[in-house]
Amino acid sequence: MRTPITLTPIGYVKNSRSGMKDDFWGNVISEITISDNLLEECLDGIEDYSHLEIIFYLNQTDTGNKIYKASHPRENPEWAKVGVFARRNKDRPNHLGLTIVKLISRKGRTITVQGLDADNGTPVLDIKPVSKEYLPREEVKQPDWQTELMKDYWK
Amino acid sequence: MRTPITLTPIGYVKNSRSGMKDDFWGNVISEITISDNLLEECLDGIEDYSHLEIIFYLNQTDTGNKIYKASHPRENPEWAKVGVFARRNKDRPNHLGLTIVKLISRKGRTITVQGLDADNGTPVLDIKPVSKEYLPREEVKQPDWQTELMKDYWK
């Protein structure tokens, strides 16, 4: 049943970040140039959107046989242990990262975006435009620790 | 450089949908049971969130060597041709689907969600909780065709 799935990067993140640091991503500017095997026109019309969703591969996290026990977010014992699917931690099954970014510009095969929380060299797997209709249609609720954890994230 | 990446489903979508239809997803109820190789506690704490992001694999789309030319959304000639990264079309490089759903309940290894636009049997690659801080921090703009296309999507 659990057939493996093989994906190929469509491009790579180019920015000034390294070391997978926790915070201060809000002003980070990144470029993504789509791979040579894709047509430049794959990006046509993207300028009509203000925001994009970037799915990327966290290639620096441990890919060993982990069992993903519930744990304290950011190893903070004041926050209760939560499971890997109740947090957006980098270290997770399939190592997928996912972030909404602001589109700054598109030039040929390259987009420039703001607020992508991925290090330089990170493989990109997909780019989707943010459509208002795909955002939550009801009030969003989350635990207090999540709000606290994000305090400096976009600074 | 473009090293292939291998992922393994963490579960599969169980619902009443088939045939990859375009619209009427809003009331669809789906179950996702996480795989036996993952601990049940991977879902601990997920009940504290109202919404989740589901990344899934569109296994019914053509996986051949496509070049993804710009095309009319829904083959509607009244809408201008756009590139694959300027639309959320199912047929795309890496075949990744991505949708915010409403969490209805969690029971052991199973979550029940509303509004997942994926057919029965679709492999799930990741579950992330929706955090308000990850939603767009500025006004979202999109082309008119996108708004029109989504008219009946969540009905």
CATH architecture heading of chain A: Beta Barrel
Counting DSSP H or I runs of 4 or more residues, the number of helices of chain A is 1
Order of helix and strand elements from N to C terminus of chain A: EEEEEEEH
**Class from helix and strand fractions of chain A:** mainly beta
Output the strand order for the largest sheet of chain A: 2-3-6-5-4-7
Most extensive contact: A-B, 76 and 77 residues
Biggest β-sheet of chain A: count, sense, barrel? 6 strands, antiparallel, barrel
Distance between the termini of chain A: 43 Å
Report the portion of residues of chain A in β strands. Answer: 25-35%
What is the CATH topology assignment of chain A? Elongation Factor Tu (Ef-tu), domain 3
CATH-assigned homologous superfamily of chain A: YaeB-like
- Report the oligomer: homodimer
Average of per-residue pLDDT values of chain A: 94
Number of domains of chain A: 1
Any idea what the radius of gyration of chain A is? 17 Å
Helix content of chain A: under 10%
Number of strands of chain A: 7
In words, what does this structure look like?
The structure is a homodimer. Chain A has about 160 residues and is mainly beta. Chain A has one domain: Beta Barrel (Elongation Factor Tu (Ef-tu), domain 3), CATH 2.40.30. Chain A has one helix spanning about 145-150, and strands at about 5, 10-15, 30-35, 50-55, 95-105, 110-115, 125-130. A 6-stranded antiparallel barrel of chain A has the order 2-3-6-5-4-7. In chain A, a hairpin with a 2-residue loop joins β5 and β6. The longest helix of chain A has 6 residues, at about 145-150. The first copy, chain A, is globular, with a radius of gyration of 17 Å. The model of chain A has no long low-confidence stretch (mean pLDDT about 95). At the A-B interface, β1, β4, β5 and β7 of A face β1, β4, β5 and β7 of B.
